């Protein structure tokens, strides 16, 4: 991707810059974030979104929240870090990468607890940079493993945006497509528009077109019919949180795609880094599902499309049960068949 989704300028007293994804595809504009409140707001309103990118944003949010803390004493530094992490954790509930990154920042500080505050501050900076760097490397590994599953002539389908914009690197599900293209495979991709916020139409179609991968946009309700009429041969999606048994939460609508894939005998793959697994949850029933404001459904993008006062239910994610998932591509290898034992085996490797 020519334009990095998220980056940090300067040392630990610097600032974060990220693409404001709410403006795409019409306008490519970077937001400059100088405090934790600005980062919280960017995550909440999906200026930065997608599980791995949210993780990197959280780590940078910690650096923003810890600015100006060089003068406090050790306990003061630790207390402030707890406070900043709790605040950032309240921005969105489903993508576990957010909590994973915050935990990682706190764990790094615990390891440095005996050192002077200035050094602890520097260590947090190093940790955030490591999270960014590792995410890039992981995306490339996901692409390499996933491309093994793509066949010449495939007709792929994807839901939401699991591309470069959802990570600090080349993406998860889309990284597979970028890697397959690099290998010279010929294939096309059907892109679900992804109601209500249109991450598929606005972001995935944009990314695939820039990469010169043939992409056809469809409304979400056309996906089962595309499987029947347009020969969809494989499906790749991302994930926001995967339980220990392989149940996977992803953008609302993914479950329906998986059900239709089963009915049409189309292999359905989830592509996700190990940081998206939450092994503390036995099944997907325990995954917290974000519910968003009704206005995103009734007057999305500024035009009212439902009567005022109409009741709305707007879960932002759903959970696809493991039995509907053919395989989960991770940076450590392919989990197939999907179940508790195989998840533990591959992630432990
Ligand atoms: O609400 P969003 O746009 O943050 O939801 C994003 C998704 O559901 C993605 O599919 C998921 O995070 C995978 S990202 C590589």
Largest sheet: 7 strands, mixed
At the first level of CATH, the class of the largest domain is: Alpha Beta
Shape: globular
Bound molecules: 5-S-methyl-1-O-phosphono-5-thio-D-ribulose
How many discrete domains? 2
Task: Give the helices and strands as they follow along the chain.
Answer: EEEHHHHHEHEHEHEEEHEEHEEEH
Instruction: Give me the count of strands.
Output: 14
Note the beta-strand portion: 15-25%
Helix content: 25-40%
Per CATH, the architecture of the largest domain is 3-Layer(aba) Sandwich
The helix tally amounts to 11
Would you give an account of this structure?
With 349 residues, this protein is α/β, with parallel strands linked by helices. The protein has two domains: 6-140, translation initiation factor eif-2b, domain 1 (Four Helix Bundle (Hemerythrin (Met), subunit A), Up-down Bundle); 144-347, Rossmann fold (3-Layer(aba) Sandwich), CATH 3.40.50.10470. The chain is built from eleven helices and 14 strands. The protein has helices at 36-44, 51-65, 74-89, 96-111, 117-147, 173-182, 199-210, 223-229, 254-264, 295-298, 340-347; strands at 6-9, 15-19, 30-33, 154-158, 187-192, 215-218, 234-237, 241-243, 248-251, 268-271, 277-278, 317-320, 327-330, 333-335. The chain has a seven-stranded mixed beta sheet, sandwiched between helices. The longest helix has 31 residues, at 117-147. The protein starts with 5 loop residues before the first strand and ends with a helix. The site of 5-S-methyl-1-O-phosphono-5-thio-D-ribulose has 19 residues, from helix 2 and strand 9. 5-S-methyl-1-O-phosphono-5-thio-D-ribulose (MRU) is lined by residues 46, 49-52, 95, 160, 162, 166-167, 171-172, 199, 238-240, 250-251, 316.
């Amino acid at each position: 991707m020519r334009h990095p989704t998220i980056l940090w300028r300067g040392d630990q007293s610097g600032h974060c810059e990220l693409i404001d994804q709410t403006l795409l595809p019409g306008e490519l504009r970077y937001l400059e974030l100088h405090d934790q409140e600005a980062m919280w707001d960017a995550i909440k309103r999906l200026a930065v979104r997608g599980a791995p990118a949210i993780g990197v944003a959280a780590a940078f949010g910690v650096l923003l929240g810890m600015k100006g803390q060089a003068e406090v004493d050790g306990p003061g530094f630790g207390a402030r870090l707890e406070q900043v992490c709790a605040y950032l954790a309240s921005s969105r509930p489903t993508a576990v990468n957010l909590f994973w990154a915050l935990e990682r920042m706190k764990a790094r500080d615990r390891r440095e607890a005996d050192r002077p505050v200035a050094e602890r501050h520097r260590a947090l900076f190093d940790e955030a940079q490591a999270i960014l760097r590792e995410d890039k490397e992981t995306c490339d590994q996901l692409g390499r493993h996933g491309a093994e599953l793509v066949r010449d002539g495939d007709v792929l389908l994807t839901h939401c945006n699991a591309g470069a914009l959802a990570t600090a690197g080349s993406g998860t599900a889309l990284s597979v497509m970028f890697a397959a293209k690099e290998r010279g495979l010929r294939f096309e991709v059907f892109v679900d528009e992804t109601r209500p916020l249109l991450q598929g139409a606005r972001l995935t179609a944009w990314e695939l077109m820039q990469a010169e991968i043939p992409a056809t946009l469809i409304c979400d309700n056309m996906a089962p019919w595309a499987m029947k009429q347009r020969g969809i041969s494989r499906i790749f999606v991302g994930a926001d949180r995967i339980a220990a048994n392989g149940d996977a939460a992803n953008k609302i609508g993914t479950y329906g795609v998986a059900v239709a894939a089963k009915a049409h005998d189309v292999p359905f793959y989830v592509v996700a880094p190990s940081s998206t697994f939450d092994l503390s949850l036995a099944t997907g029933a325990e995954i917290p599902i974000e519910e968003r404001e009704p206005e995103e459904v009734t007057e999305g993008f500024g035009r009212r499309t439902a009567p005022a006062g109409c009741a709305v239910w707007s879960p932002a994610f759903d959970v696809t049960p493991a039995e509907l998932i053919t395989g989960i591509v991770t940076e450590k290898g392919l989990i197939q068949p999907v179940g508790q034992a195989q998840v533990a085996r591959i992630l432990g490797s």
